[in-house]
Design brief:
Layout (H helix, E strand, L loop, with lengths): L1 H28 L10 H25 L2
Helix pairs in contact: 1-2
């Protein structure tokens, strides 16, 4: 059970990281196409914050629960 829970936590964080990485790529490749975000830089920074949190979770899992 322990291995399954840790694996699920790692996969969840990896999925969150992939999702927000893709969002940043969209902003970088087509910033004018995002109508609800008039401040593209603010939107990118928000995505980077979310990426950082997910990355930190992966790092903590790797460091303390390998």
């Amino acid at each position: 059970m322990k291995v399954q829970l840790l694996d699920a936590a790692r996969k969840h964080a990896e999925g969150v990281l992939a999702l927000h990485t893709a969002n940043v790529q969209v902003y970088l490749n087509n910033p004018a196409g995002i109508g609800e975000h008039s401040d593209v830089m603010e939107a990118i920074q928000s995505e980077l914050d979310k990426m950082s949190a997910a990355y930190d979770q992966i790092e903590m899992l790797n460091k303390y629960f390998k």
